[in-house]
Write a structure and sequence with these properties.
This protein has 329 residues and is an alpha/beta fold. 43% of the residues lie in helices and 17% in strands. It has 12 helices and 9 strands.
Length: 329
């Protein structure tokens, strides 16, 4: 009886469909161990939000942990150098932004140790997010014209913050000041959240950052949104005028979230990661969350398309960086 029962159980198990195996990159066993995801900026910013949402989904889909590490130093240069020193096997990825992948080329020039086009390989871009300028209420300004007058009256002493020297927020503010013909004092922080704490406390007077980071605080009245650097108003902050509406059409500022890998990472692994990230970005759990934070989700950002996009952004932004006079020590 026991033997018949065991045989019956064995036949029943054999009749069940095989358990689905985790996906692997074609021709490889990748990933067969945890993957490090190095974020070039501090926790809480748009790049970090992208990295954590997508890494959690990749862990679930692929059966290996994608572990996020923040390396917020040097405007992304430290993260680049960290990734560049690892094996080109897809087990160390880099998540950055406009600053790390474009602006640093203009800021550092020949001092840049890892160039975004020749020092890493690329996977995809997961989102775009517009930049908004916000002020502390004590500035008592509501329009760009009033902001311009208040900063000019300060004679260069009005302080503004950013997530670090050479960051997107730093250059976006520097460009606005340059276009407006005014000067202010830059105070770099280790991340947007740290800068924003001092903005709320009134120790700095303004900050340029992503709408995904600023929108909740603008709606709450903690800070005032003055201008947004895109052609049309954002539904996240519909009362904030565009730069063109505010009289400064040249201030167009949007960051984006690139995913990169160590130079020499096999193309099948990068294509595999692109396809899975693209699929994740189509899921309501991730897509709706990113859109709710003011992001837009690009389509067709293959590894080749991503590299071409970054090259075009470098061509666009490097002259702007140099004309703005922004520098890093």
């Amino acid at each position: 009886m026991i033997r018949r029962t065991l045989l019956g159980a064995a036949f029943a198990l054999a009749a069940l469909p095989a358990l689905a195996q985790p996906a692997r990159a074609p021709g490889t066993d990748y990933p067969n161990k945890p993957v490090r995801v190095i974020v070039a900026f501090a926790a809480g910013g748009n790049a970090d939000i992208n990295a954590r949402l997508i890494s959690a989904a990749l862990s679930q889909r692929l059966g290996q942990q994608f572990v996020v590490e923040n390396r917020p130093s040097g405007g992304g240069t430290v993260a680049f150098e960290t990734v560049a020193q690892t094996q080109p096997d897809g087990y160390t990825l880099l998540v950055g932004a406009l600053g790390s992948h474009t602006l640093n080329v203009g800021l550092y020039g020949d001092r840049l140790r890892v160039h975004p086009l020749t020092g890493v390989d690329h996977i995809t871009i997961s989102s775009h997010s517009p930049i908004v300028l916000a002020t502390h209420p004590s500035m008592n300004v509501r329009t760009l014209a009033e902001f311009r007058a208040a900063v000019a009256a300060g004679g260069g002493t009005v302080a503004y913050g950013s997530s670090g020297n050479g960051s997107t927020g730093h250059i976006a503010s520097a460009l606005l000041l340059h276009l407006a013909g005014i000067q202010a004092t830059h105070v770099p922080y280790r991340g947007s959240a740290a800068s924003f704490q001092d903005l709320m406390a009134g120790r700095i007077m303004f900050q340029s950052d992503t709408i995904s980071f600023m929108a909740e605080h603008i709606r709450a009245g903690t800070v005032r949104g003055i201008v947004i650097g895109i052609p049309a108003r954002s539904p996240m902050a519909p009362d904030v005028p565009t730069a063109a509406e505010a009289g400064l059409p040249g201030w167009q500022a949007t960051t984006w979230t690139p995913w990169s890998a160590t130079l020499g990472t096999p193309a099948p692994i990068r294509q595999f990661l692109y396809e899975h990230i693209a699929a994740i970005l189509r899921t309501p759990e991730v897509r709706d969350r990113l859109i709710a934070l003011g992001n837009t989700i690009p389509e067709g950002m293959t590894p080749d398309a991503t590299r071409a996009f970054i090259a075009a952004e470098i061509d666009k932004w490097v002259p702007i960086v140099r004309a703005s006079g922004a520098r890093v020590d």
